[in-house]
Amino acid sequence: MNTELKFKTNLDCQHCVARVKPLLDKVSGIESWSVDLANPDKVLTVQSSGANAEQVIDTVEQAGFDISKI
């Protein structure tokens, strides 16, 4: 069963999204993800089939961005 996880980030442009893409794409258990750049909170939505919130947070922080679970 897939779980939807939502996070507030500071990914504010396509370049930022491109920097986290290879990292998030490698995380086992993430089926898909997207960032709503139009939202003031730059919401990252992750469809997970096993990845947990801590894995997503660690991955985005590795890329140098701020992230917190909503």
Automatic annotation (TrEMBL):
PROSITE patterns: HMA_2. It comes from the Bacteria. Pfam families: HMA. This is Copper chaperone. InterPro entries: HMA_dom, HMA_dom_sf. GO terms for molecular function: metal ion binding. Gene3D superfamilies: 3.30.70.100. Residues 2-68 form the HMA domain.
